[in-house]
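Field reference: sequence -> structure
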Amino acid sequence: MRMKLLAVIEPALSILALTSGVSAEVRPNSLFADNAVFQRGKQLPVWGIAREGERVTVEFGGQSVSTLAKDGKWKVLLVVWTPRTSR
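Structure field:
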């Protein structure tokens, strides 16, 4: 079961909890909210809390990175991000 927890900016940043039954308490840090600004050309760390052993997947700009929560915390590092330019 996939549960969408957060959509932040365009392209959307989504945190997904992959669970096999009961929905999980997966939450990103409060820094990740509407109108968040990310620095261009830098790796983007994304972190939060979840139950021990919970699988967390972060999707952003066509990337998908997964990790398991350890000690109630999780963190992933997205590769260097360059925003699309509109013309």
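Note: Strands lie at 2-7, 13-18, 27-28, 44-49, 55-60, 63-68, 73-78.
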